[in-house]
Design goal:
2 copies of one chain form a homodimer.
Chain A lengths: L13 H16 L6 H8 L6 H4 L3 H26 L3 H19 L1 H7 L2 H6 L2 H21 L5 H23 L9 H22 L2
Helix pairs in contact in A: 1-2, 1-4, 4-5, 4-6, 4-8, 5-6, 5-8, 5-9, 5-10, 8-9, 9-10
Chain A binds a DNA duplex (30 and 30 nucleotides) through helix 3.
Chain lengths: ~200, ~200
DNA sequence: GCTCAATCTTGACGATGGAAAGAGGCAGAA
DNA sequence: TTCTGCCTCTTTCCATCGTCAAGATTGAGC
């Protein structure tokens, strides 16, 4: 078969190329429209080529989800550091970073927090997901360092659930159907401030 | 082909049978493992039989999701009516019903609030989903009838997001990995009471 | 009892994930 | 340098999927 220089027999960076094309495909077609063969096509290789780099389609999805959690952690940390207003401001900033990542990568976000991802049971996936949870718990700890363990857990649950729930409902179309992007951001920020206020008050 | 009395040529209740087998299959295999042919197999008909009752696999999924929202509304109403403690107690009860439905039908719940469901654009689906949102808004209205519209919306977002977020994270394995079922219920109730407290306080 | 439309079966098509077998190319040993 | 072995990729094949088209079956209404 004829083969140009741009398409040598050995790709060289196929794993990375598959991750890149896979991520784009995921956002385009959603989880149910995601196919391994289309990933391979976009990477310019045959449909069986991915097999060497990823044992199965779930293995590739697992990698995408794990990298998503890494990026999510970065987004949370970046926004938290940029925020003003001390520990409570940092908590709000974390929420902003969380929502911004989800809004920018809706299909990936859904994959990361889907039941299917949970079944993947990849070590990298559980590790990176745990890092995100640790970041969140640390932010709560910073706001109410002297509260009891029970209250800390309750506020961790509460804060995490409200941020995650809000952006999830928004991306699923259950919230703000006809609102403008600007109005939705305002609603998000309003929710974040109410959340932070609740946490602060719980600290005594 | 030989055909027993129990398997006549015309099924008679095929639509309902497909909904039933489909729902069971969904919980067993998850969204990605859901196939139309397996639904047909379990209903005892050929693989092409469903076509007459459902235009496509998405059409069947849409029906499942719509019925899920109906059941969710019933679960919320039932628990809210059973609850004591006035309007605030009713709000908590609604949350209990919401979480109980989700815990009892995790895959269906995920389907109902998935991006794919959003793409289905079925009229029945949007209607039943809207009913659930209206129930929730009414419960908030009952707790803080004299608050401003802005505060009502903020608390509707906040309450809905925290309940939805908590049970979603729980079902996805992001919360309470090794906790007992009893401990998780306690965490859920703790979150619900914190949620109700925040709403009540927001009312002035 | 006949007709006909609704319902179901059979068979086919293109697409998918995965396995098996072979071809190509690089790196280290001779 | 040449050869050898292994990693990578292609080709081919299989079972399964959703969907369509065509034929078989049945019950309801004339």
């Amino acid at each position: 078969m004829e083969r140009s220089k741009a398409q040598p027999y050995h790709h060289g960076q196929l794993r990375e190329a598959l991750v890149t094309s896979g991520r784009a495909l995921l956002e385009e077609k959603g989880i149910r429209g995601f196919t391994l063969r289309e990933c391979a096509r976009r990477a310019g290789v045959s449909h069986a080529a991915p097999a060497y780099h990823f044992a199965s389609i779930d293995d590739l999805l697992s990698e995408l989800a794990a990298r998503g959690f890494d990026e999510l952690a970065v987004a949370m940390t970046t926004e938290a550091n940029r925020a003003e207003g001390g520990a409570a401001g940092g908590l709000i900033g974390q929420g902003v970073g969380y929502m911004a990542f989800a809004a920018g990568n809706p299909a990936l976000f859904q994959l990361m927090f889907s039941r299917e991802a949970n079944r993947l049971e990849s070590a990298a996936l559980t590790t990176t997901a745990e890092k995100v949870r640790a970041l969140h718990a640390a932010a709560i700890e910073g706001v109410i360092p002297h509260a009891s363990g029970e209250i800390k857990q309750r506020m961790t649950d509460f804060a995490g659930a409200s941020v995650h729930g809000f952006i999830s409902l928004l991306l699923d179309g259950q919230i703000g159907g006809k609102d403008s992007s600007r109005a939705l951001k305002a609603r998000g920020l309003s929710l974040l401030s109410a959340m932070a206020e609740t946490v602060v008050r719980a600290g005594g």
